[in-house]
């Protein structure tokens, strides 16, 4: 049987390295791997399905997988995952000190279906009692103007969203034309040391550790999406790819945890990684459905509440049937 040839587009991740370089192989599959910025992956895959598999924002994935006849399916492979309490940036002149202070204020994000903002808006509404309708939302590019929404939306009733095409969130925040930005990358004004732009939660690490201990949610930003036609034609391909991604990740974590060799130019990295491994129950960066169920379910809920998903979804509906079939030797 001839080998299946696939194109894969992702950003450069160490946990994909061994698969990308051919040190790990997916049984029966050859790949052409395109290393692109993740925004380019998102835009080109969402607009034109240029690749067979692509890194994709989880929020944008939720918009597309919940369509009546989706043409993609996910692999429960995590490209990027980060807690996001560090992502609230405020202008001091607004006098904002708590989440409750955001009621009635102007808050921006790069896109409505921006995974970091989806998690934090959901947290505001569901845990902190600040409904979406109590905030005037803005959308603009993070550090440059012109960023546009990549998926269709059905905003909830009475939610106010203003799109700004000719200014960036960084400019708006520095000029005090918005009060807060929820943004994955620090705004340039913050990096440049603008005296009025600060993090709302300077103690974000402690907050995030406590949040995980309470909820077992470790926010997933980007996953691997795959054309459904490949799974329909080659039902074995999804699991073989998943197995290869898992082995590539295992090797990456083995490198990080190695106490004898400084593979990365970061002091005490192995010690820190072992502490994080223990905090996360033994798996430093888990893939799979059950291992991440609270996180999949939270994003599904928040995406539905925020008008991104078209219908409620269970984790099992997001991925190929049988992808997690247990194999015991």
Largest sheet: 6 strands, mixed
- End-to-end separation in angstroms reads 26 Å
Number of domains: 2
Helix-strand string: EHEHEHEEEHEEHEHEHEHHHHH
Number of strands: 11
Number of helices: 12
Q: Which structural class do you get from the secondary structure elements?
A: alpha/beta
C-alpha-based Rg, rounded:
20 Å
Give start-end ranges of low-pLDDT stretches.
none
Write up this protein.
This protein has 329 residues and is of the alpha/beta class. The protein folds into two domains: 4-81 and 219-318, D-Maltodextrin-Binding Protein, domain 2 (3-Layer(aba) Sandwich); 85-215, D-Maltodextrin-Binding Protein, domain 2 (3-Layer(aba) Sandwich). The protein contains twelve helices and eleven strands. The longest helix has 21 residues, at 237-257.
Give a short overview:
This protein has 329 residues and is α/β, with parallel strands linked by helices. The protein folds into 2 domains: 4-81 and 219-318, D-Maltodextrin-Binding Protein, domain 2 (3-Layer(aba) Sandwich); 85-215, 3-Layer(aba) Sandwich (D-Maltodextrin-Binding Protein, domain 2), CATH 3.40.190.
Entry keywords:
12 helices; D-Maltodextrin-Binding Protein, domain 2; 329 residues; 2 domains; alpha/beta; five-stranded mixed beta sheet
């Amino acid at each position: 049987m001839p080998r299946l040839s696939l194109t894969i587009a992702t950003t450069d991740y160490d946990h994909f390295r061994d698969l990308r370089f051919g040190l790990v192989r997916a049984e029966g599959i050859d790949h052409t791997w395109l290393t692109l910025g993740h925004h380019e992956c998102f835009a080109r895959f969402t607009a034109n399905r240029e690749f067979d598999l692509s890194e994709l924002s989880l929020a944008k994935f939720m918009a597309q997988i919940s369509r009546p006849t989706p043409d993609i399916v996910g692999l429960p492979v995590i490209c990027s995952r980060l807690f996001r309490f560090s992502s609230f940036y405020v202008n001091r002149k607004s006098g904002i000190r708590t989440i409750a202070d955001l009621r009635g204020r102007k808050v921006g994000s790069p896109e409505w279906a921006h995974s970091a903002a989806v998690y934090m808006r959901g947290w505001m509404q569901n845990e902190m009692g600040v409904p979406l309708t109590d905030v005037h939302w803005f959308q603009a590019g993070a550090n440059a103007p012109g960023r546009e929404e990549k998926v269709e939306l059905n905003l909830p009733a009475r939610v106010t969203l203003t799109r700004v095409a000719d200014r960036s969130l960084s400019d708006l925040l520095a000029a005090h034309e918005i009060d807060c930005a929820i943004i994955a990358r620090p705004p340039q004004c913050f990096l440049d040391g603008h005296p009025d732009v600060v993090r709302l939660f300077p103690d974000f690490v402690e907050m995030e550790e406590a949040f995980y201990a309470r909820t077992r949610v470790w926010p997933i930003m980007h996953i691997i999406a795959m054309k459904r036609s490949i799974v329909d034609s080659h039902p074995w391909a999804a699991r073989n790819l998943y197995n290869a991604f898992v082995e590539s990740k295992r090797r990456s974590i083995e490198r990080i945890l190695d106490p004898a060799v400084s593979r990365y130019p970061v002091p005490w990295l192995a010690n820190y990684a072992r502490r994080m491994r223990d905090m996360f129950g033994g798996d430093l960066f888990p893939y799979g459905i059950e291992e991440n169920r609270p996180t999949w379910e939270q994003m599904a809920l928040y995406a539905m509440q925020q008008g991104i998903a078209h219908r409620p979804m269970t984790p099992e509906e997001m991925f190929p049937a049988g992808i997690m079939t247990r194999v015991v030797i």
